[in-house]
Design a protein that fits this description.
The protein is α/β, with parallel strands linked by helices. The chain has 15 helices and 13 strands.
């Protein structure tokens, strides 16, 4: 009850701090965007950005949005519904059409530099400002958080979110250095066993920050298909599996084809958790993905991951992590 009250007070303070009048910002595409504030109705075409609205406590401004791998009726859906009962009215399974977006009468549209670079031109004739965001790596996450904090007048909360991430990075680096341990060779597997994250992806940054040595760091582009011979050459000591897709640790552990790989022999194969969004996607929850990875790469790191996760969801979402999810995280 106290946690919920604290969140309610924080939200009220955030509303009181809303900027008034015209605000000009430079988005992550370099566009100068003039916004009428306070912004009360937001359409998000960018699923990653949608989750920043929740972490910043302004999800009540969202009138239509795409979400990262969220399916109605799933455990993630039920979890997010407990934070935002209005979710069904604002959820869209795919990117909404221009007509669908305009029907919600938005004050602002959030779009992805990667997926929706043309969004600005689409909405210009209707005098709807578009902010292009690019939260696809650590630098981009920082820019997105700071920009949304300024737009919604919740700079202090945005700063707290980034401070949490910075403190975690420092704590992990210090703990790993204190252990004097080598960085385990680490592979990140996607929706298929032989589909791996390239060196240009956020998952590789997470591995590095968590104290691992990403074996696929030299691969370029996005998800890459490799053969089993390449895996034997890399011989990862730890394997992480994306929380989306049907691949499980047992699929690899029980497949004779994989038995010659160090991670499989030592049973260090782990599927990442998800609560609202997958922990490997560059949303605020990925800060917890980093922490979780570090404890799997370095079990003696001395960080209570469950306590940290509970505190994070309580502070930034007003959400009490249920026992069922605690079990998944501990696993």
């Amino acid at each position: 009850m106290r946690a919920l009250l604290a969140v309610a007070v924080a939200l009220l303070l955030g509303l009181g701090a809303f900027p008034q009048g015209k605000l000009v910002v430079t988005d992550q595409a370099g566009n100068h965007v003039e916004i009428e504030t306070p912004v009360k109705r937001v359409v998000s075409l960018y699923g990653v950005a949608t989750m920043y609205l929740y972490a910043l406590g302004v999800q009540d401004r969202l009138v239509l949005g795409t979400f990262v791998g969220l399916k109605p009726g799933s455990p993630s859906w039920e979890a997010l519904m407990s934070v935002d009962p209005g979710l069904p009215d604002k959820y869209t399974r795919t990117k909404p059409s221009l007509e669908e977006a305009l029907a919600r009468e938005p004050d602002l549209v959030l779009a992805s530099l990667w997926k929706d670079p043309e969004a600005t031109e689409e909405f210009v004739p209707f005098d709807v400002p578009v902010v292009i965001l690019h939260a696809e790596d650590v630098e981009g996450i920082r820019g997105t958080t700071e920009l949304l904090g300024r737009i919604f007048g919740v700079e202090e909360r945005a700063a707290r979110l980034l401070s949490y991430f910075d403190a975690m990075v420092r704590a992990i680096a210090s703990a790993v250095a204190g252990l004097g341990a080598a960085r385990p060779r680490t592979l990140f597997v996607g929706a298929r066993p032989l589909r791996v994250a390239s060196g240009e992806m956020y998952q590789t940054q997470l591995i590095e920050l968590a104290g691992g040595d990403p074996v696929a760091a030299q691969l370029r582009g996005y998800w890459q298909d490799v053969d089993i011979e390449q895996l034997f050459l890399w011989d990862p000591e730890v394997i992480f599996i994306a929380p989306y897709g049907k691949v499980t640790p047992e699929d690899l552990l029980n497949d004779p084809l994989w038995h010659g790989i160090s991670a499989v022999r030592s049973r260090r194969v782990h599927k990442m958790p998800r609560v609202f969004a997958p922990w490997d996607i560059p949303t605020p929850e990925s800060f917890l993905g980093l922490l979780w990875m570090a404890t799997k790469l370095h079990p003696d790191i001395g960080i209570d991951v469950v306590a940290e996760v509970k505190a994070f969801y309580r502070e930034f979402y007003g959400y009490e992590l249920p026992d069922g999810l605690v079990t998944v995280i501990e696993g």
